[in-house]
Prior knowledge:
This protein is α+β, with helices and mostly antiparallel strands. The chain has one domain (about 10-200). Helices cover about 35% and strands about 20% of the residues. The chain is built from 5 helices and 7 strands, in the order βαββαααββββα. The strands form 2 sheets. The chain has a 4-stranded antiparallel sheet with strand order 4-5-6-7. α2 packs antiparallel against α3 (about 80-100). Keywords: Signal.
Amino acid sequence: MKAMPLFISAVLSVLPLSSPAGASQAALSWFQSQGYVGPAGTRIIACHGYGCSRRQAISVDGTLLSRASALLKSGSASPEAERRALGQVVSAYTAYLAASIGGRPDIPGSPAQMSGVHGQMDCLDETANTTSLLLVLQEQGLLTYHRVEPPESRGFFLDGRYPHFTAIIAEKGSGQEWAVDPWRRAPGQRPEILPLIQWRQDS
């Protein structure tokens, strides 16, 4: 898919932002628990450098929202179709986010030697950025079949797996939870969107 022209303005200062009305309070509370800043309106605090050690405030403008609206409207037939459309929205968002932050394009899988490097993102950065986008989409009324839930994790060293986080959506009807995880994908590639139970079993 050709990357859509997302006009996102980057600003240097990072200010505390109020919570958007109607957004998932549980998901927003996750940001506070991590010491991060959740989205407010169409403003997102983009995380990079691993563990959100570097932050940059961006504003998502009407062009992105209009394009996201068109994609999600095309996926209005079913929850499955909406998830496919979300994959397109997230893939374009990650591409433009990487370009907006600058530096070397993010390397999938967060290799240890890239820790602290400008523009590189570990799973916490990816999770925060994806959850922020999903909350903006939800606040704008663009999600028909899903709601945004707090991020989830898997692995804790003792089970032989490194800890890993992902953004989560849940079907409004069935309550089934889905991982939305771009961590193994390069910017601009479609994220993994799979049942949370399956994601948890992965390594």
